Amino acid sequence: MIKIGDQLPDVTLQEYSEVEGNGCSIGPNPVKVREAAAGKTIALFGLPGAYTPTCSAKHVPGYVQKIDELKKAGVDEVWCVSVNDAFVMGAWARDQKTDGKVRMLGDGSADFAKATGLTLDLTARGMGVRCQRFSMLVKDGKVTTLNIEGPGKFEVSDADTMLAQAKG
């Protein structure tokens, strides 16, 4: 499992773009994790699935609401990673009004979740292999804090915890 001091895995996520620009076409665009994190401070959080209750009601909205404070604390970007395809993440981004605040990154084949050891097996519930709920502060591609939730919990991966860690 990934730990403090480790580099982010060399995998590619997908981000849905509504408009063309900055080298991005409309639709899914690849995001090479290590390349995209280089030289930046990233507040990265992962969750089991788009449109799921806790994720939609608490997890993403918390980061959207705290974006200005996170930026003041030195965070360059906030990333949300979920085992969903880029189209679902793009639609969820519209619903959650994350544009310009939180990058919604699809991990459709669970490559990131597997490479970090943060998988959650929900096959018995018909959801397949997903991502555990977690957050991490990443500086220049290296994990500096890591908060992994217990099963069914939402206590340590929230925006307030991340903000306190970014300030610290």
**Can you tell me the CATH architecture?**
3-Layer(aba) Sandwich
Order of helices and strands: EEHEHHEHEHEEEEH
Mean pLDDT figure: 94
CATH class wording: Alpha Beta
The biggest beta sheet, please? Answer: 7 strands, mixed
Let me know the number of strands. 9
What's the gyration radius in Å?
Answer: 14 Å
- The share of residues in extended strands comes to 25-35%
Show unreliable segments. none
Number of helices: 6
Structural domain count = 1
What is the CATH topology?
Glutaredoxin
Distance between the termini: 24 Å
Shape designation: globular
CATH homologous superfamily, by name? Glutaredoxin
The spatial strand order of the largest sheet comes to 2-1-5-4-3-8-9
Percent in helix: 25-40%
Q: Please state the structural category.
A: alpha+beta
Protein architecture, described:
The chain is 30% helix and 30% strand. With 168 residues, it is of the alpha+beta class. The chain has a single domain (12-167), classed as Glutaredoxin. The strands form 2 sheets. The protein has a 7-stranded mixed sheet with strand order 2-1-5-4-3-8-9. The chain is globular. The model has no long low-confidence stretch (mean pLDDT 94).
Short descriptors:
168 residues, 6 helices, two-stranded antiparallel ribbon, Glutaredoxin, 7-stranded mixed sheet, alpha+beta, 30% strand, 30% helix, globular
SSE topology:
Elements: E1 12-17, E2 27-32, H1 33-37, E3 41-47, H2 53-65, H3 67-72, E4 77-82, H4 86-96, E5 102-106, H5 111-116, E6 119-122, E7 128-131, E8 134-139, E9 142-148, H6 159-167
Parallel strand pairs: 3-4, 4-5
Antiparallel strand pairs: 1-2, 1-5, 3-8, 6-7, 8-9
